[in-house]
Amino acid sequence: MRDIGLMGESFFQVWCSSVGLIANSSRIDKTGWDFFVEFPCKQKVGIPEDMLPAPIECKIQVKSTDKRDRKLPIAVSNLNRLVKAQMPTFFCFIEFDNKDEPQAAYLVHVGKEIIEKTLKRIRELESQGNSNQLNKHKITIHYCDNDRLADTTGTSLKLAIEKYIPDTIEKYIEEKNKLLKTLGFEDGIARCTITVSGDDPIKDLVDMTLGLRKEVYMDKSISYHSRFGILSNNSFMNYEGGILSIQTKPSQIKVKFKEYAFSSGITFNAEMYTSPFFKFVPEEYIKLRIKSRLFDLLIEPFNKKISWSFHTSYDERSPLEELRNLFKIFNISQKSSSPLIVEIESEDLPSSKILELQPEDFSPFLPKLIIGNEVYECYKIIYPIAEIAVSICQKSYLSEDTVLVSIEDLIRLSMSLDTFHQILYAVPETVQFELTLEGEEYQQNTKAVCIFSTKTNIGNHNISCFCGIVGYLTLIDQNQYRLINDDVADSMIIGEPLVLIETEVIDQEIFNKKFDEFETELQKKGLLVLRLES
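== DUF4365 domain-containing protein ==
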């Protein structure tokens, strides 16, 4: 009587030997494989021997049959070993069709599909209390024309194995281990049931995942491992009482406020929080939180509710640009007849509109400012001052996002900032100087420039600037002259500003040197320089 199993193994060994593969036979077939196949080292031109990748090694179970139904039940215990082996594993099905020579051969890779099916079946059997009887349960392995070798030779077998290992054996094992660690865990690795008390425990849980509270108190918690949605029989955590804390990683976004659909808008860098519980909670608990450095915007779409909170205090310093933009939004929201459009965008998502804000969505939350016994809307006072400060920064070549300023700074220095701004942006013909001058060089209609310095500070920066007004001297009395502006484009001259952070003291020697350089530059232009010392 023919031993078809032994026949198949014999032909398999011959195929391996014919192409230089070493087929080590398993003496006792209880480990799920028949042959441990070793490939020779593959030489590569220009690569030293010690740097060559490891040769392919794999385990193969050979199954011989006279049938042509192209399927065979395999014990789960054998599959368990094959899917967890730290190397490629295969089934080689050899069809004899009642003949003495193989008529066809098929190589089935134990890849993702078989690994997933095996792991799921093991989890099912364990949940039924049969984890110690895997050898008594089967999984049917099918093979088809896609698995068929080109012919029954060692060359076709070798090429078929190599097809499944296109890179190095190390890379293959890494990817296989990744499958073993992730398959079945797409919906999480555990199922936890917690009992939370309180007036509104669902709200508390949602708020915690949005970062609105740090923790919630639990009455009871019990957790089970979960894979493929199948829970383990025994819990791995079971507590009475305790504290639950969940930190949700926010998405980094840009939030843009626009007065009109096609306007450029005002943009803030922000974080967006959504809760992982939104799939399970009633819609009235769904919230979206947008958190920037200066504000928090909480949106409850199904409750049609919007609330704001602001992180900046009276004396806390923030980037000038962001502070100005925040108060600019308030200003627009209260003056515009149209709702304010809010858009968000991120690296993964294009800009998209999420809501429109009406004036009443801002009004209850606008910060107030108390001066004396009067209460004012903060934005009405701060926004104009902040705009002046930004204009000064631009004229001084100072990036407004590096300037740190508080509301208290802006109010305290409002007059200084306004004066400095008026000088920098002055209309020359509106500026006149009356001077007492003695000397032959001072004559009627002499072209001259009157230079002076002015200074202010914006938050954490001190700014000094040198200015000049060009005009003609007009005699109005004995030794009394008035500088009359000639109304030309370059009649107002602004020198290079001197900018220091507030912890630095302006060195008088450096200041005078800068002033002297400014004076010398104007003298080279043929102007009579009249220097006003502060």
